[in-house]
Design goal:
This protein has about 90 residues and is an alpha+beta fold. The chain has one domain: Trna Endonuclease, Chain: A, domain 1. Strands 1-2-3-4-5 form a 5-stranded mixed beta sheet. It is about 25% helix and about 40% strand. It starts with a helix and ends with a strand. Strand 1 and strand 2 form a beta hairpin. The chain is built from 2 helices and 5 strands.
């Protein structure tokens, strides 16, 4: 969450349940946009977004569309990968 606090984002919810998927973290950016963050853990250094399967992408995309309509704003989609040393790598706008 430090990554987003540095950018002056406000944490709105953790583990938000939508009709399509559970969103790990939901932030509001200073621009007013929402930022949906999916958090994944990995035991290896190879934690690329390619490791996320199509079903996960699809569910989260539908959740993002739902939130965009509900809050009438743009929704950015980010992945946060946490390794065994608790190092966080964030991929924005994939």
């Amino acid at each position: 969450m430090f990554h987003y606090k540095k950018k002056n984002c406000e944490l709105l919810r953790q583990r938000l349940k939508t009709p399509y998927a559970e969103v790990d973290l939901l932030f509001r950016a200073p621009s007013g946009n929402l930022i949906l963050v999916e958090v994944k853990t990995s035991n290896s250094a190879d934690f690329l977004p390619a490791r996320v399967n199509q079903r996960q992408w699809s569910r989260l995309a539908r959740a993002a569309q739902f939130l965009a309509a509900r809050f009438d704003c743009l929704v950015e989609f980010h992945w946060a990968f946490v390794d065994s040393n608790f190092t966080v790598t964030v991929f924005e706008e994939l």
